[in-house]
Amino acid sequence: MGANVIVTAIVIIYLLLMLWIGWYSSTKISTNTDFLVAGRRLGPLLMAGTLAATEIGGGSSLGVVQNGMSGFGLSAAWYIITMGIAFVILSFIAPRFRAATVKTVPEYFRRRYGKSCGIITAVIMLLPLVGLTAGQFIASAVILSTMLGIDYQVAVIIVAVVVTVYSIMGGLWSVTLTDFVQVFLIVIGMIIAVPFALRYAGGWDNVTTNIPAGTLNMFQGYDLFGIISLVIMYTATFSVGQEAVSRFYAARDEKAAKGGAWLAALINFIYAFVPTILGIITLALINMGKFSTDQFAKVGARYALPILAINTMPAIVCGFLFAGIISATMSSSDSDLLGAGSIFSNDIYKAVLKPDASSQSVMRVTKIVMCLVGVASMLIALFNTQSIVSILMFCFTLRAAGSFFPYVMGHYWKKASPAGTIASLIAGTIVVVYLEHVSKGILFGIKFSQPIIPGLVAAFICFIIFSFAMPPRIETTELAPEEDD
Questions:
Q1: What sections of the sequence does the record tag as coiled-coil (predicted)?
Q2: 299 within a domain of the structure (yes/no)
């Protein structure tokens, strides 16, 4: 009982700290630009912390541990390593993103390709953010329910309320500062857990003798094509996902945007093997008989990491680990919430419904939408039991496929046209939804593990063909002017 009190106290203090940071950040907000892009004042260190924390979420903690213990072995690390590779690639185009001085991705589409493209992009990007937020709520609630012994549904409600409140209070300032704290909790909390788990297993040699042959093979779960597919998926979605690309918009300058991407990549490379090793140790413990598969039968393999922690670590270490894992999931869900609110207020409310809306009015609508998305995501999390990684994968793919080429090439190619952009958005979305929900990944007799590949190919072909067939009235990469409040 005493141990449980210590663990619970640590996590409660952490949750209260997040709320305090939200309040503190709210004192720094005076305009909509402050709220949406932190006044464009982030240096490379804050950039790196918030970028890494945003993308290291439920899939990268609970999901990778689950994969590490259930067939992927050491190759589960590719899920996070490929994120780092994507950040390296993005570092070369991040300065262009910052130079555009927009607040959202749909705003770029609107000012580059026209109002219709902005609206279509806003809708395509808004809906997946709800799914992404729900996925992170699920992961956070898994930890709370296991740790406190409370009902999963109650845990979902607690997580949803805390994240939504501190995100609404301070906008991107709040999200950035909480992310900066959270990324250290994530990495350090998980690293500290490894030696305790190893000691419980009797050392690394004991682990290796109790795992199947091939578990330590980096290519057991992913072949080269699978790895390349992940790199492409992450590069595409980090380029156009509001929760990630808003960090580049918020950078102090182009140099800070580039440096932040490199540092975020480094954090991913370091972190990648930590949850993977914890998953492998859990597998060894099951094979040794120290864990029973019955422990997972009731709650599911997604609870592997919490059960490992409870059984192998002192209360104070367990508390910090739980705070770290909750950090991982909360630091992603707050960004998804802000992304959804930003897109609706900036690109639907102000751009379409009320063009003369004041900065304060737009900021108020952002907060209202964040609250609504928080509630919707909470409801989805309450009743959704799918694999965390699967939910995130589909959401990533859906919004990235059609918008990637018009967005990235729009910064460089003067002939990119509105017609090509609309064709790309429609084609990419249709192909991804078809593969995911109709054909079960099969297209022209070929089985695709990642719908992102054929989705991007279809989008690229349509983008090029329609841009040449229906060229822009003026060939330029410059954006139409828009007031920046």
A1: none
A2: yes
CA dist 199 and 309 (Å) reads 12
What's the one-letter identity of residue 319?
G
What is the residue range of 219's domain?
Answer: 2-388
Q: Two tokens at 84?
A: 């780092």
Question: Which residue is listed with tokens 């409660």?
Answer: 12
Arithmetic mean of pLDDT over the chain: 85
Residue 396 in domain: no
How many Cα neighbours within 13 Å face the side chain of 364? 5
Highest-scoring range by mean pLDDT, 174-178, 251-255, 466-470? 466-470
Q: Is the dihedral of CA 54, 59, 64, 65 positive or negative?
A: positive
Number of domains in the chain: 1
Q: What's phi and psi for 42, nearest 5 deg?
A: -80, 130
In the numeric block, the tokens 């918008």 are attached to 403
Residue 428 has pLDDT above 70, yes or no: yes
**Domain for residue 283, yes or no?**
yes
Nearest one of 399, 407, 334 to 90, comparing CA atoms: 407
Confidence of residue 390 (pLDDT cuts 50, 70, 90): low
* Residue 273, domain CATH: 1.20.1730.10
Burial of 289 (0-12, 13-18, 19+ CB in 10 A): exposed
* Segment of 291-295, 324-328, 334-338 carrying the highest mean pLDDT: 334-338
SS3 labels along 163-221: HHHHHHHHHHHHHHHHHHHHHHHHHHHHHHHHHHHHHHHCCHHHHHCCCCCCCCCCCCC
CA distance 426 to 182: 37
Alpha-carbon distances of 292 from 70, 208, 276, 298, rounded to whole Å: 14, 19, 20, 11
Instruction: With 0.85 as the threshold, say if the pTM is over it.
Output: yes
416 inside domain = no
DSSP line for 126-149: HHHHHHHHHHHHHHHHHHHHHHH-
- As a residue count, the chain comes to 485
Burial of 16 (0-12, 13-18, 19+ CB in 10 A): exposed
Residue 1 has pLDDT above 50, yes or no: no
Predicted confidence band of residue 145 (pLDDT cuts 50, 70, 90): confident
Nearest-angstrom CA–CA distance, 72 and 279 = 10
More confident residue, 393 or 45: 45
Q: Which residues contact 32 (CB under 8 A, 6 or more apart)?
A: 103, 345, 346, 359, 360, 362, 363, 366, 485
Of 334, 37, 393, the C-alpha closest to 159 is 334
